[in-house]
Amino acid sequence: MSWSAYMIIAAQHSKNNAQHWFRYLRKDIEKCGKTFTKEEVEALCTNEALTPFQRVSLKAAFEEDSPTRQYIINLNHKVVPSKLSLLRAKYENIH
User: Fold this and answer.
1) How far apart are CA 49 and CA 91, in angstroms?
2) What is the DSSP string of 36-81?
3) Domain map (residue ranges) of the chain
């Protein structure tokens, strides 16, 4: 099965669930250039099987410095307790 065919199936399975779609993208971000090319990503962005949200997020996921890409990469990463403590202290002082 080609990468494009796999992503179309993934898009259908996660049509109403953005987090599920982002998890599919997270698995593929690291494979870009090995399993598929940027041209394949561009071709998939025009596929009618994907929703408009999926097309936009797919394109943003494979742009190097996009906030969407950073969000997707950081999904399911553990929070470092010291960073969490700093954030709590910062926001406790605001209230």
Assistant:
1) 43
2) B-HHHHHHHHT-TTS-HHHHHHHHHHTSTT-HHHHHHHTTTPPPPH
3) 3-94
